[in-house]
Amino acid sequence: MAEAPEVEVLAQDLRACVAGRPITAAAVIDPAAVRFPPPDAYTRLLTGCTIAGARRWAKHLWLPLADTPGEGSAGEPPLALEIHLMLFGTLVLLPSTTAIAPTTLITWTLDGGEELRLVDRLGYARSAAGPPGELIERLDLATLGPDALAPDFGPQTLRERLQGRRGVLKSVLLNQRVVAGLGNRDADESLWLAAIDPRRSASSLSDEEIQRLHAAMRGVLQEGLALRGTQRDLFGRKGGAPHGRYVFERSGSPCARCGTRIAAIRMGGRNTHFCPQCQK
Ligand SMILES: [Zn+2]
Predict the structure, then answer these.
(1) 279 alpha carbon – ligand 1 mean position (Å)
(2) pTM for the complete prediction?
(3) Which of 161, 184, 262, 266 is deepest in the core (most CB within 10 A)?
(4) Residue 143 Cα to ligand 1 middle (Å)
(5) How far is CA 21 from CA 66, 92, 183, in A?
(6) How far, in Å, is the centroid of ligand 1 from the Cα of 220?
């Protein structure tokens, strides 16, 4: 699944191998994959731009673009390319001569006979392009909460974010406006590690429980990143992180801590996996 560790791995790969390279052409294979502008305008806008860098913004990929050298203006990059991988999307860097897989949604041709491709077997991944201010506004990026992987995301920040939230803990943790960067899988694993029941009210956690949850979230995200995620990277190499470690999609299996069968319930439209015995 494409959660924060997987998106971060791709951002790192893009910075290493794609930053500084021009987009010589772009092709929209599935028009539904472009949020805005319309596919024709999208490809026109991107052709001739240089990818200036890449970063993860919650679960979005954000690539600032510069005009092709010679036409460039100093200061802020005038455009940006945004990509959201949704559940299972990914990016691959391939020789342009490689046959286009049926799961390909968008291609961006680079220099040196290589192509960056957005692929998704479910077809849910999305992209947008435009001036940074327009992207931030239309994609609602300014309202995102602090990033759980940021160096300054401490237990105090988590406490402040959960304070006064009457919602169910699991759903509140998935709300990217509260905390950015925690997906369904990583939330379930974090709550199991912290031994906290996902059905609790978010505002009911003691200081000690918040410390435990914070340590668990950071542990799960950093381990996922260190193992290069669960998906393939930009070069097609599979990451070493397990899809489900202790609870995620392991319902019916014995809990690694107490042996009780892992339960699965629907919460806020998402599957939630937890141990009904030792998560209090
Ligand atoms: Zn248990």
Answers:
(1) 7
(2) 0.93
(3) 262
(4) 36
(5) 10, 15, 31
(6) 18
